[in-house]
Amino acid sequence: MTSDSFLLVDEDTKALNDLKTLMSTLGFKNLHEAESANNAWAMLRLKPYGCVISAWNMEDMSGIALLKILRSDLAFKDLPFFLSDAAFTKVKVVKAGLAGVTGLLVTPFDKNNLKMKMAAVIKTKPEPLFVKEEKTLEKGMDLIEKGRFEEALSMLDDMVNKGETAEYYYNIGYIKTSEGKYTEAIEAFRKATQLDSLFAKAYEGMGKAYQALGQHELAEKCLQKAVDIYMDKENVEDAETVLNEILEISKDSANVFNSLGVLYRKKGDFKKALKNYEKALRIHPEETFILYNVGRLFLDMKDPGKAVEYFEKALIIDPDFREAKQVLDAIELGTI
Question: Which parts of 48-197 are beta strand (E)?
């Protein structure tokens, strides 16, 4: 893929087709579609794109959740990413900015604005960095797009037989775990995460294998990584399940209580969120990211006065805490 390729993401099929038609009319030809954020993430893992335009609101996974996942991976930290929505509230603008959005597009799209922003992307964006790219895989996918399936299968056959996929190694790890061969399972799960750094199930499997070996600290670390990925994908049910597994390992983990606070805030259960944040702060009273999360919670609870108190505490401890300062500035300006 070259820097002039675009990945368009929207679960609304009509809106997706309309955007593709408009982009084509404006002269952009290298267009690809994904009908969910999860599908988009899978496509981005297979080959690089020059730019992503994603709807904000999607049931499967929101556009901003996809953006956060991409920004957490070095391969996509500079990928141009635009979010589209019918109406951007002040809160949404701040959240998108903190997540690392390239730009915001209001729907229905303004043709001139869209053309100007996309043309700028093509002009300034170099070939995208794709750390995990395999030349064989890229050629194979190009052949599939052209309908040359037999050639593609032949080209990809050696790679598949060697098991060079994250899913393959995950399955090996699962089998080794079932056999009680935990050291071999850990090695397989580790290979899976090397191929896909955001493979939550592989981190979860690795954590369980470490736990079976009695290596509790490593188990908690791996399970927490799985939780973080689930949370970024807004998969709160799986995150909650793994957090409860961590509590079986460590009853006094600040990370667990903080993560539970984030989870319950996302679910709208502010009382449980605050209770867990308070537990986390009792363990680490000067942990800035926990103080920041409490501030975010009070904003959701429509109590900006209390929110400011926690953001200021975080900044006293770490004056360079950029996110806390940005939210404080937004509160002072009245944009939140």
Answer: 51-55, 81-85, 103-106
Of the options 3.40.47.10, 1.25.40.10, 2.40.30.10, 1.20.140.10, the CATH number for the domain spanning 165-251: 1.25.40.10
Output the CA angle 75-130-84, nearest 5 degrees.
60
Residue range 254-336 forms a domain whose CATH class is mainly alpha
Say if 165-251 and 254-336 have the same CATH topology.
Answer: yes
Q: Classify residue 20 as exposed, middle or buried by CB count within 10 Å of its CB (0-12, 13-18, 19+).
A: middle
Phi (first) and psi of residue 130, to 5 degrees: -135, 90
CB atoms within 10 A of CB 91: 13
CATH for 6-124 is 3.40.50.2300
How would you list the strands of the sheet with 103-106, edge to edge? 31-34, 6-9, 51-55, 81-85, 103-106
Q: CA 231 to CA 273: how far, in whole Å?
A: 14
Say if strands 81-85 and 51-55 run parallel, antiparallel, or are unpaired: parallel
Residue 8 DSSP code:
E
Ordered per-residue pLDDT tens for the chain, 336 residues? 455 799 999 999 999 999 999 999 999 989 999 999 988 988 888 888 999 999 999 987 899 999 998 988 878 888 999 999 998 887 788 888 888 999 999 999 999 889 988 988 876 544 443 333 345 556 655 665 676 766 655 655 555 455 457 877 888 888 888 888 999 999 999 998 988 888 899 999 999 999 999 999 899 999 989 988 888 777 878 888 898 888 888 777 788 888 889 888 888 899 999 999 999 999 999 999 999 999 999 999 999 999 999 999 999 999 999 888 989 988 887 777
